[in-house]
Fold this protein.
Amino acid sequence: MRLNKPAVALATATLMTLAACGGGTSTGKDPGNPATGKIEGGAAGSGKDPEAAAPAAIPDGAQEGGTLTVTTVNVPSTLDPTQAYYTDSTAILSDLVTRSLTQYTYRDGEMVLIPDMATDLGRPNEDNTEWTFTLRDGLKYEDGADVKAEDVAYAIKRSFAIEELPDGPTYQTTFFLDGDKYKGPFQDKGEYAGVVVDGNDITIKMRRPFTDMDYYASFPAFTAIPEAKDDPATYGKHPLATGPYKFADYKPGSSLTLVKNENWDPDTDPGRIQMVDGWQFKFGQDSAKLENVIINDTGSAQTSLTYDNISASGYRAISDDADRLVTGTSPCTYMWYLDMTKITDLKVRQAIGYAYPYRAAWKAGGEIEGVTRVPGTSILPPGTAGRKDYDPLGIGGVDTDAAKAKELLAEAGEENYEIKFFFASDDALSVAAKDQIVKGLEAGGFKATPIASTLETIRTDRTDYDADINVRSSGWCSDWPSGGSWFPAQWAAELVGLEGMPNPANFKEADMTAEQDRILDELTPEEATVAWGEFDETMQTKYYPAVVTGYSGSALIHGSKVGGMENDNVRGMPTFAQMFITG
Amino acid sequence: MGIRPTELVDSTPDEPDEPDEPKVTSQDVAGRSPTKIALDRLRSDRIAMACLGIVVLFVLIAIFAPLLTRLFGVELDAGDPVTDTKFDSFPAIGPPDSGFTWAAPFGLEPGTGNDLLAEWFYGARTSLGVATFSTVVATMLGIVIGLVAGFSRGWMDKAISFVIDVFLSLPFILVALSMAPIIVSRFGNQPDRLQFVQLGALLFVLSVFGWMTLARLIRGEVLSLREREFVDAARVIGVPTRSILFKELLPNLIAPIVVSISLGLPAFVTAEAGLAYLGIGAVGIPSWGQTVNAAVGYFNTYPLFLYAPVVGICLLVIALNLLGDAVRDAFDPKTRR
């Protein structure tokens, strides 16, 4: 899944100010030192409970009424369920507005996959090439109309319309039947053979085994959309609600007001509650201001929260009041993607890994080690099933070793190798982190050439194949807790050359491609899980196409009357579905 | 935040130098030029002198910034985040967690661990340097354009007045804000040049938007001066126009120019800080405005970080403003004390 805003100058600098990638276990205690501040990796939603019963239990201390206010510096680009792929837009839609076939719910520090509109988590056939979901009875849209299985089938077909509705998740094109040919209901008027509806049953057919369909069915793209009411250009302004809240007023770019959806029946929903009267989202706010308002906790700030990570200054200010701080790990990895077409020598790539000033760049970029940034070396973040903890450089992802970098460069005969990367010259933290990275690289025998960009343009600049840079700083978040949502999504050879640069390292090695195909097509789910962990290690050891610059942690704050706020460690967002106002 | 350096009272020009009338009294009267009178008045103004002292102090700080940093044993941009800051990015020594230390009298910057005293010294240098340069350029432009506009009649005057109006109507902040991304995209891939181009652009914007008021003022003065007898006389005996402008007219305009400069300086200091706060200006060069920008988030937890540059800007601007007011009073012949 994409980070809230992929506008990443230097992973260190901008990512965390813009993106909230949260985590699992809520410790939120003793931010006194890095040792205790460090959090165990959450399981990132690896648990499943197909038996979860509706209605969801009302938490203790929950009161009815009131409005929760969510302020954030981020601006979701779209709230169309098919297009929602950023962590914030999926959380807002899935938790509050549009129900999907499956959903996650928070239980004791973990996110558990439970049924939503479907009665269970889907029934695959023997080789995972057919998945059948059965829709519950009594589901209604906000206008009182019944939700039909055909509407879900239509929503699935709609997700193939990538041209009309870009930027959404695209696993359906890889796994679903005819996914490479079918172009969605707007271009292909005929039937789509991949989805079959029979009464309340929806059967999805695959072209290659897809073991993670139950996870994938939790995306907002697997909601119900009535074909008659769909206009792809405007549906995102008011998606029909099936969940506990509906759109009352949406001003793209600035605010979203949600009010109770009277047609939502708690007896059909095992995961959501409807305690507050409404939600008020304010987008594009000033980050320092919103942070101070929530920290000061007076008046309406008591029922406010944010999903932006707290700044170093705010972290200290809130540490006296630690129960208003929610921390945890999250399934996002920050990386320096090394352009394989430009930096062709493995030794040079490894030298970059040795020279990168991990701690210095994090601190200068406003990160708090162990809280908002957790050191690590595997591409798969903690909590991913089958993850293998390995250390290709032997420096633990923190201990910069300039001497070793120089040695490798000398061996490769590439002294003074030039590293070019973007930074946002209008962001003080980005500039400060850039200064540290330049210092670190130069100490390691490189020539560092930071190229100025701006916060507004850095995202498009970075995904430009012709940009005169050889390193790209960005990151990736799990869509579900298995390597299957990592490597085919960012490290597949077929992605090289595609619009938006989905494979930021231009990684294209024949043996790794063959291995990916083998894992996807030949292995059972259990074998595949382990194989992805091995794949991670093999790729990083043999090719080292990316410097892992740590995993995101989250540190989110809320007002004193906000209840039920935990970390949704699948998205790194607050658990909106189960939040309420306390007395 | 416009740069309107002058808000002069409508001062009539001083009488041009004319031969002294023969004195009837036998009393000794020292011949004193208007400038000398003004300076004497200024000298007796205690507030003005105190402000002058502060300004001189800042000028010395700006000039000797490298020496001062060495004297205090601090260094610019020498922070190492790993050793100089704690795990949550707050400084490892000095405020806010520990008391005052001579190792870092103004504390360290959170995150980077850079010394704030060094930043402050060099910030003064940037502030005064930018303000002085812009004032000089803007004043030159204003004088020349004002003189030419006032002295030439007909189409030339109209054309120049039109240009002045155009520049006055351009939204200063908008131009400055839109220039920053253009420069970044144009020179972003040349990091060595970018810094100079950004500084140059800042100076350019400040200068180009700072001359109009003075030009208008001077044009007005010249309009009335050029009808005087001494100008006619000069013209009759064939003095070239350039000499009339710079030898005959300019000396009579010293008062408004001095006042304009003295009020323009603080305006430019404020403008530089304001633009730096908005992210326009030379990235990578220490600047009070940029420090303020970085420190706003630390208002609660590390106030010294914010106070040092704010106090610097306030002191300098207040001193310059009061000094400017005193200069205006001193040069204004209508002021009687």
